[in-house]
Amino acid sequence: MTKKHFIALADVIREHQRLTNFNDQYKPFTSDQLETLADFCKAQNPNFNLERWLAYTAGDCGPNGGAR
Questions:
Q1: DSSP 64
Q2: How far is CA 50 from CA 9, 37, 55, 68, in A?
Q3: Which of 62, 65, 58, 63 lies closest to 14 in space, CA to CA?
Q4: How far apart are CA 24 and CA 41, in angstroms?
Q5: At what angle are helices 50-57 and 3-19 packed, to 10 degrees?
Q6: What pTM does this model have?
């Protein structure tokens, strides 16, 4: 997987998490689920930055680690 794939996956997760605020039909991903996905991504590409990806999925930074 490439950086584009990791960002696209994180974007879908962020949107899903956002929707949980407005629709009870959606259940948020748990931190364990997100860490499992991050571990999978790390296994696919040794350059994958697990901490940055988790921060991006949480909305704490932009896709490159900088400001949102």
A1: T
A2: 13, 10, 9, 17
A3: 58
A4: 29
A5: 30
A6: 0.88
* Amino acid residing at 24: D
Residue 62 and residue 68 in contact, taking contact as beta carbons nearer than 8 Å:
yes
Q: Tens digits of per-residue pLDDT, 6-42?
A: 999 999 999 999 999 998 888 999 999 999 999 999 9
DSSP string, 1-63: --HHHHHHHHHHHHHHHHHTTT-TT--PPPHHHHHHHHHHHHHH-TT--HHHHHHHHTTSS-T
Domain boundaries along the sequence of the chain:
3-57
Burial of residue 43, with CB atoms counted within 10 A of its CB: 0-12 exposed, 13-18 middle, 19 or more buried: exposed
